[in-house]
Amino acid sequence: MEEKIIGLDKEINLLKTLYKQGKIASSYLFLGKEGIGKKKIALHLAKILNCQKHQPCQKCQDCLLIDNNCHPDVYTISPEKSISIEDIRTLKNKTYIKSISHWKVFIINDAHKLTIEAANAFLKIQEEPPENTTFILITHKLNMLPKTIQSRAVKIWLSPNAEQIKTYLKTRYPQIPAQQIDYLLGVYENSLGKIKNFIDSKETSIADETTKVLLSAEDFFNFNLSLKKKRQALKEELSFLMLFLRDCLVAKITPNSILLNSPYYEIINTYQKGCSPEELIKKFSKVVEIYNSAENINMYLAAKLLTDIFYG
Ligand SMILES: [Zn+2]
Q1: Could you tell me the distance, in angstroms and rounded to a whole number, from the CA of residue 74 to the centre of ligand 1?
Q2: Taking residues 124-130, what's their average pLDDT?
Q3: Is residue 28 in a domain?
């Protein structure tokens, strides 16, 4: 049985409307951050197209075959390293086979992993798409996908509804305090996949780690330096630091606020006492600047800048 898709009602309704209006495109690009449900939405579209009731009903043979990854008209490429020209040739051969159901759907996960040759070969298929066939390219790295392929696909940006995800998480993990859930939503930018991974793996969160070192300039610097080979962790830390500074400001302006329930209330309160509201705002915008260059910034420089921001 398919797991329910959480927080993407808007996207599901859009696809249903497109289907009802007979406007299903031959190529789609499903875009958005990792772990938000792009693959699930792609399979959902495959079901809308092939379900015997076009619901999807979750009961007919087509729905069940898609759920079990063995529908002959729904083909998925999930590359480990790259998508080769052979992969695209295999895909092309499959487009020639007559469909048993209504619609052929080809899902290409991590489409940014297409090699140049594979991308060119795919482009040719895109230029003359077979009838009743839809290609769904999935990526969180749009800038790594050739513009030619992009321009021949309808782009759909997935943006999960934070409230729906929050409600789901509260029911799914009743043991976790609401405030902690709010933090996770902020740090993992509403990515349900990442949040569930985090909770299920029971790792110490980057927020926990950061707050442990935040009151000593030296510990804070060394902690940031230890992230040297973990750029993703730096980004998570930066997201947390933005929330942290925002909360410091809230604590400064409205003492006894809802922050009293925060797992980090004590450190928020201690830190905010040493800063004026203007200073907090300035620090916040400096962290935003680093966040915006987090993909490329030298990690030593990032550690130094952050320490300056919090202790300069
Ligand atoms: Zn069905």
Answers
A1: 14
A2: 94
A3: yes
For ligand 1, the distance from its centroid to the CA atom of residue 155, given in whole angstroms, is: 26
Cα 63 to ligand 1 centre (Å):
4
- Judgement on whether residues 153 and 82 belong to the same structural domain of the protein: yes
Digit-coded pLDDT (tens) for 219-278: 999 999 998 888 888 988 998 898 889 888 888 888 766 666 677 888 898 999 999 999
Say whether both 146 and 57 belong to one domain. yes
> Please, which residues bridge with residue 75 across strands?
106
Does the bond joining 129 to the residue before it have cis omega, within 30 degrees of 0?
no
Q: CA–CA distance from 208 to each of 181, 203, 267, 274 (Å)?
A: 13, 10, 11, 21
Whether residue 146 contacts residue 119, with contact meaning beta carbons closer than 8 Å, is answered with yes
Q: Is residue 122 in some structural domain?
A: yes
What's the 19 CA to ligand 1 centre distance in angstroms? 15
Residue with tokens 């729905």: 63
Please give the residue range of the domain that contains residue 208: 204-311
For ligand 1, the distance from its centroid to the CA atom of residue 68, given in whole angstroms, is: 13
In the reported structure, the alpha carbon of residue 75 is separated from the centroid of ligand 1 by a whole-number distance in angstroms of 17
Q: Judge if 92 and 212 occupy the same domain.
A: no
- pTM reported for the whole predicted model: 0.69
106 CA distance to ligand 1 centroid (A)?
18
148 with 219, same domain: the answer is no
Cα-to-centroid distance, 57 and ligand 1 (Å): 4
**Three-class secondary structure of residue 263 per DSSP:** coil
59: helix, strand or coil: coil
C-alpha of residue 66 to centroid of ligand 1, in Å: 9
Out of 61-65, 252-256, 299-303, which region has the weakest mean confidence (pLDDT)? 252-256
Q: State in Å: Cα 95 to ligand 1 middle.
A: 23
Spatial distance between the Cα atoms of 32 and 172, rounded to a whole number of angstroms: 24
